[in-house]
Design a protein that fits this description.
This protein is an alpha/beta fold and 263 residues long. The protein folds into two domains: 148 residues, Rossmann fold (3-Layer(aba) Sandwich); 104 residues, Dihydrodipicolinate Reductase, domain 2. Helices cover 35% and strands 24% of the residues. It has a six-stranded parallel β-sheet. Helix 1 crosses helix 8 and helix 6 runs parallel beside helix 7. Bound molecules: NADP nicotinamide-adenine-dinucleotide phosphate. NADP nicotinamide-adenine-dinucleotide phosphate binds next to helix 1.
């Protein structure tokens, strides 16, 4: 598989580069970063600690896509329009992991997926995909007498809040109970909790990779469904698995569950 990386010099980009080299059958053919990134022009393999790959981090998306079977993106939302234009022109499938997208960004993804295979997931881990299924099932079975609340913890450098994964788990609750609405703050005289509300709260600090707990509070008992990421490799493994699955698909919008075969 010939892979291009977008956001190649970031934490996730370099983790994917390392795991792609370790996989043995993936060739990195292009790498894109921000034009002002101090790592611009440096070899992605060297940055990832796996030796020179002969691929320098460049600032041109179209150049990086030349010869790629698939692109993996872990960058920042402002980078999205240029990336989508380039993958549509080159007709290359794309797997996107960037979080913090706006509604307008999501509409851009929908439009692009009419022309190319596109998979966007706010969490590429297999464990979170399974957790979302378990949450939906638990909420369905417990019914409206149980209050759902979500708490997530991330490292101090994370720029968006709540995390994409927290939103994904909130969606899983809403699939089972469509009347539920997320709220992101309780401060002041907010009154008692209503049946329809669901707090989704973020804690930030240190180097926590990502913890998520869905609390289900009932009369006299509570369930806590938790996922803890212990390193970034799990997201990279999921993204690479998704990328392999995307090669040769028809245009369309795919989910990580499609790629992982989880229903
Ligand atoms: N879906 C998942 O499973 C998952 C898991 C982990 C993280 N994420 C998300 O993935 C994204 C990246 O996370 P990270 O921890 O790797 O962050 P990071 O270390 O900040 O990496 C982001 C990279 O994208 C680069 N970039 C910024 N603007 C760009 C542009 N216009 N074109 C190309 N590259 C650009 C950044 O360059 P500069 O440093 O020069 O700005 C940086 O190298 C975040 O949105 C994060 O929330 C998703």
């Amino acid at each position: 598989m010939k892979l291009a990386l977008h956001g190649a010099t970031g934490r996730m980009g370099l983790t994917i580069a390392r795991l792609a080299v370790e996989a043995g059958d993936i060739q990195i053919v292009g790498a894109v970063t921000h034009p002002e990134d101090p790592a611009l022009g440096r070899d992605v393999g060297e940055l990832a600690g796996v030796g020179s790959l002969g691929v320098a981090a460049g600032a041109s998306v179209p150049d990086a896509l030349l010869g790629a079977d698939v692109v993996i993106d872990f960058s920042l939302p402002p980078a999205l329009p240029a990336l989508l234009n380039a993958v549509m022109r080159a007709k290359v499938p794309v797997v996107l992991g960037t979080t913090g997208l706006t509604q307008q960004d999501i509409e851009r993804l929908d439009a692009a997926s009419k022309e190319i295979p596109l998979l966007w997931s706010q969490n590429m881990s297999v464990g979170v995909a399974v957790l979302a299924v378990l949450v939906r099932e638990a909420v369905q079975r417990l019914g409206p007498a149980y209050d759902a609340e979500i708490v997530e913890i991330h490292h101090r450098r994370k720029v968006d809040s709540p995390s994409g994964t927290a939103k994904r788990l909130a969606d899983a609750v809403v699939e089972a109970r469509p009347e539920v609405k997320s709220l992101y703050e309780r401060a002041g005289q907010v009154g008692p909790r209503t049946d329809e509300e669901m707090g989704v709260f973020a804690i930030r600090g240190g180097d926590v990779i990502g913890d998520h707990t869905v609390h289900l509070f009932g009369p006299g008992e509570r369930l806590e469904l938790t996922h803890r990421a212990t390193n970034r490799d799990l997201f990279a493994h999921g993204a690479l698995r998704a990328a392999r699955w995307m090669v040769g698909r028809p245009p369309g919008r795919y989910s990580i569950n499609d790629a992982l075969g989880i229903t």
